[in-house]
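Journal club prep, shared notes

We agreed each person brings one worked example of a sequence with its structure written out as tokens. Mine is Anti-sigma factor antagonist. I'm keeping it raw so we can talk through how to read the token line rather than staring at a rendered picture. Sequence first:
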Amino acid sequence: MDRGTVGSAQSGRLLVEVRQEGSSAVVTPAGELDHHTADLLREPLEDCLSKGLSRLVVDCSRLEFCDSTGLNVLLGARLKAEAAGGGVHLAGMQPVVARVFEITGADAVFTVHDSLDAALADEDG
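Then the structure, token by token:
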């Protein structure tokens, strides 16, 4: 898969990079993931799944904010990835984003890694 950037020229609040690393699609959202920008992440996640990449690693290290809409995008991708025999791995979450996952209990349904390198090293997980 080519490395590409998907973004909204109007908001500029979220850019998403996608690349393939081994059997994983690495999706890196940068900025704010909320009601206004959720489709900018949803579309590349669904595109990866439609191309047969069911192991999605979301590098959250550049994600500055995530609200319930963003959380729902990730949960929806998780269900589709698991149905395809894969999963969604979250890596490098900033404390403010990790807190959203903790208080909603969503951290219990995702495989969470401290870093992108750790997520990529855990190919079996």
